[in-house]
Amino acid sequence: MNRETISQSISIVHPISLSHGRNAEVWDTTGKRYIDFVGGIGVLNLGHCHPGVVAAIREQATKLTHYAFNAAPHTPYIELMDRLTRFIPVDYAVSGMLTNSGAEAAENALKIVRGATGRTAVIAFDGAFHGRTLATLNLNGKVAPYKQKVGVLPGPVYHLPYPSADNGVSCAEALKAMDRLFSVEIDVNDVACFIIEPVQGEAGFLALDVEFAQALRRLCDEKNILLIADEIQSGFGRTGQRFAFSRLGIEPDLILLGKSIAGGVPLGAVVGRKALMDNLPKGGLGGTYSGNPIACAAALGTLDAMTDEHLQAWGSQHEEAIVGRYEAWRSQHLSPYLGRLTGVGAMRGIELTSPDGTPAPQQLTQLLSLARDAGLLLMPSGKSRHIIRLLAPLTIEPAVLEEGLDILQACLQQLV
Predict the structure, then answer these.
(1) Residue 24 in contact with residue 401, Cβ under 8 Å?
(2) Does the pLDDT at position 258 exceed 90?
(3) How far apart are CA 388 and CA 395, in angstroms?
(4) How far apart are CA 112 and CA 385, in angstroms?
(5) What is the predicted pLDDT for the residue at 2?
(6) Nearest to 71 by CA among 295, 292, 297, 288
(7) Whether 123 contacts 181, CB under 8 Å
């Protein structure tokens, strides 16, 4: 297959060409079957071609394939926003806007907080990933490959250590770094917002420290700073509940949504306190494709499937299977490269480390190849590209999940 017409700046994890998929299984153009633990990088929490989502897409495609909502409103957008705002587990009145992607949601959130606060400074966190657009690049807590060769980025943006039991950074260390930031780098009264992932995805499924999250919420309230939760990867059931911020005992002011919002159809959203969402002038928010009717229909089909009962059952199934298998591997000394289990609930990563405790990216690269040859697709992550992200659809059949973990187990044993 000729790929010369595709930019070589796009990095490919698995050098195969997929033709079709069903729930947690995909097939390439040679007919080879794979169990999918990548899920379109967290986009397919309901799996490939979920029947309810497909039916919603088909029905909508016969009615209206597109209309720009800011030109003339259409029913799917209105229905989705009504359902979506009721799906957000907060106590305040919620409104929002639909976007084409999570990165676009982040960009619009920056506009919203500037309009609401009159401030421009943003504080993000080491290891963060919020997108590949120019403004979101500056939010990312990692230079290579995202910020290389692109020049001066929009700002001002500052970064703090991300406190998590999964990376060894304590709440006290993060708060100390914050004190230094406000003493040396910037006046706290010039800060518009903090933006944080309740569970970092790109960094390797690192779960935010609860004590820090609550201290951050108190600081934001005291200093009139807005708190943005990026739930693009951790939302829509990935952890086993609607959104990961709920486990932290806080309510963010704005929430970024994307990935699994629409069963694989491109869509994102920024939602939050109604007064914030309404603060920009008429025309300050919007977009030609934002809230496309077919994408909205797919999202409505997604929400139909994501009942709390389903999310809890799917989350428990994933957590029990992954944690149980990992603990068995550790007790059996399955591999000298088997490191820590990261994450929370059903959002889990497995770290590969050398016997001396340092990251083992070469072994992860080997594992990707071994697993692919055996019929399992995995996704790397982590600062050193040494953590496996487990992103199987929440709807995966238990037998297929166990089959995938069997393959992973066999491949871990082969690492050298």
Answers:
(1) yes
(2) yes
(3) 20
(4) 34
(5) 64
(6) 288
(7) yes
Distance (Å, whole) CA 401 – CA 214:
35
Beta bridge partners of 412: none
Sign of CA dihedral 255, 202, 372, 327: negative
pLDDT band at 63 (very low <50, low <70, confident <90, very high): very high
For residue 89, give both structure tokens. 């587990």
- For 292, counting Cβ atoms within 10 Å of its Cβ (0-12 exposed, 13-18 middle, 19+ buried), the class is buried
Give the position of tokens 């190849």.
369
Tokens of 59: 């029905």
The dihedral formed by the CA atoms of 24, 30, 31 and 36, expressed in degrees to the nearest 10: -10
DSSP-assigned letters across all residues of 242-310? S-GGGGGT---SEEEE-GGGGTTS--EEEEEEHHHHT-SPTTSS--SSTT-HHHHHHHHHHHHH--HHH
Specify the range with the lowest mean pLDDT, choosing from 1-5, 169-173, 325-329, 407-411.
1-5
Name residue 99's beta-bridge partners: 268
d(CA 192, CA 170): 25
- What is the bridge-based pairing of β-strands 226-230 and 254-257? parallel
Residues 6+ apart with CB under 8 A from 105: 99, 232, 256, 257, 258, 268, 269, 270
Rg (CA), the chain: 21
Which amino acid, residue 81? M
